[in-house]
Amino acid sequence: MVVLTRSLSSEIVKNMLVAQDSNFFLVKSTNPRATYRVLWYKLPPCSSVLGSYAGQTKRECKVDILIPGPNLNIPFIPRKGIKYPNGTDLPVMPLVALLPLKLQAWRDHAISRRSDFQLKQWVDVDDIKELLKIVVDVDAKMWFGPRSKAWLPVELLRVAEVRVRLYAERYPSTSADWKKIGLLDH
C-alpha cells in the first residue's frame, strides 16, 4: 500500500488501518531486533484464475506501507488522483499508479543478486496478475486512458510499458488484459 502523506509515520498508518478495518492485523517481526510490528491483511478466497493461490480458503498478505519519494521511485500523485478507501482519511495511491510500481518490484527482484529478493519475484507475479484482473474488471478503459496519462509521470508510464512487454513475454496469458488497459500495443 502506498500512502500519500508526509506527515504520518508508517507505524501510525498501520495502527490506523488496524483500528478502521478488522481485516488488518499486526504481528511481531521475525527479526528479534525489530521494534516494529508487521501489518497483514486477511484476503477473501481466490478464484481459480489467479495462479498459485487458487482454491485457498484462507489467505493473508503482508502489507508494506510505503511513502512517496525518490528511494523507491514512488511518484507523488496530484490531488485528483488520490483515493480515500472505505471512507477513511488515509490518502492512498490508486491502482493506475500502483500497478506500474508492482511491475518495478517484480523486475527489481528478478534481477537482484540477493537470493531472498529473487524469491520475492514469484509473489510479485501473482500480485500483478491479481491487480491486473481487478483493473480489467473495474473498467479497463478508465485506467490508462488520456485522463490518467495526463497526471501520471511520463517516465513511470514509459518504463511501465517496457516492463509490461517483458512480463507479457514471460506470462503470455496476461497479454490480452494488458492490451485492454492500454499498456501493451495491439
List keywords for this structure.
three-stranded antiparallel β-sheet, 6 helices, 186 residues, mainly alpha, 2 domains, globular, single chain
**How many runs of DSSP E, i.e. beta strands?**
3
The global form is: globular
Query: Main beta sheet, described?
Result: 3 strands, antiparallel
pLDDT averaged residue by residue: 79
Helical coverage, percent range:
40-55%
Task: Give the DSSP E fraction (strand runs of 2 or more residues).
Answer: 5-15%
Radius of gyration: 17 Å
pLDDT < 50 runs, ≥5 residues? none
Euclidean distance between termini CA atoms: 31 Å
SSE order, one letter for each helix or strand: HEEEHHHHH
Helix count equals: 6
The figure for the number of domains is 2
By secondary-structure content and strand pairing, the structural class works out as mainly alpha
Question: Would you spell out the secondary-structure blueprint of this structure?
Answer:
Layout (H helix, E strand, L loop, with lengths): L9 H11 L3 E5 L8 E7 L15 E5 L31 H17 L3 H29 L2 H6 L2 H17 L4 H6 L6
Antiparallel strand pairs: 1-2, 2-3
